[in-house]
Amino acid sequence: MVSNLPALFAVPLRWLTWLGDQGTRAVAAIVFIAVAVPPLGALLRPYVTEAIFLLLCISFMRVDLAALYGHLRRPALVASATAWTTIGVPLMVGLTAYASGLTGRSPGLFLALMLQGMASPMMAAPALAALMGLDATLVLVTLVTSTALVPFTASLFASLFLGGMLSISPLALGLKLLGILAASLLAATIIRWMFGAGAILRHKRPIDGFNIVILMVFASAVMGDVASDLIADPVVTIGVAALAFTVYFTLLTVTTLLFRRVGHERAFAIGLMVSQRNLGLMLAATAGALPATTWLYFALTQFPIHFAPYLLTPIARRLTARAQAAGAVAPRATTSSR
């Protein structure tokens, strides 16, 4: 593969291939680099929207259309998972925040939680599920359906819960989300048409590496101020970090329990997807015009998002092995997370 390319591209391609082979270890390492090198965050923050656009393009570009159609022919599980992540989660978050009085005590934190709840799952969720040995196709199909709905559901919940807290109207938020998703889908479609699905599949490893580089750009841009925030106010920063971990694992646990009747392995895959919210899409839609507390929470959510797949992989693989032994799912290849 490398020998057929000009020498100019051989070294970058080899490096991206190596990076793509690192799996969840590279994803976890991103947060350390982002926090340890604050100037990198200042340099990359203006490119958050572009990074999100590229991540969306990569994910849409790699959609397995045959697997997508196969799951859509059995829509009950996909429909219920989509309804939960697009309607159930933001409703639960909004009502809990109101009941706890968070809206009055910390409007910036309330805004962060609502944007998190309103967001669609991360576009990287299917890749992470595959790295962990879970049903990536189920995650992918639910991701596609929920992402298609999020411009409408986000606009609805922004109207219900946020009022004038955003710098743009709920309708404008929905239209911006729709525009970003439509543009990235169009770009991905053109790439698939130009190069073909076979070429994309053959170059999976360097594409994985490029995806990790773009994740690094996003994480650095969002997390560039974490070290200075920790020094300036360690109690608040640690408290917000604890909340980020609590929200992540609450969504994972509640979702897994809610869908346990479809099998623990599938339920865990859906739980992982639901807990991995695409906050970058919300940052892009709002152009980053958010309070400092909201930015801090978004930054600290990167810790559970990047660490959890690495930490939870042994559990995921035990559940998959148990399901295969029981004949619930067919054995499938997994990507190494060396």
Description:
With 338 residues, the chain is mainly α. The protein has a single domain, classed as Up-down Bundle (Na+/H+ antiporter like fold), CATH 1.20.1530. It is 79% helix and 0% strand. Helix 2 runs parallel beside helix 13 (204-223) and helix 11 (170-195) packs across helix 17. The longest helix is centred in the middle third of the chain and has 27 residues, at 136-162. This is Na+-dependent transporter. Keywords: Membrane, Transmembrane, Transmembrane helix.
What are the salient characteristics of this protein?
single chain; 338 residues; mainly alpha; Na+/H+ antiporter like fold; 19 helices; globular; disordered N terminus; Na+/solute_symporter_sf; Na+-dependent transporter; transmembrane helix; transmembrane; membrane
State mean pLDDT (0 to 100 scale): 81
User: What is the helix content?
Assistant: over 70%
Contiguous low-pLDDT stretches (5 residues minimum) are 1-5, 328-338
The CATH class label is Mainly Alpha
- The backbone outline, from C-alpha atoms, is globular
Major pleated sheet: none
- Structural class comes to mainly alpha
Q: How many domains comprise the coordinates? A: 1
How far the N terminus sits from the C terminus, by CA atoms, comes to 23 Å
Number of strands: 0
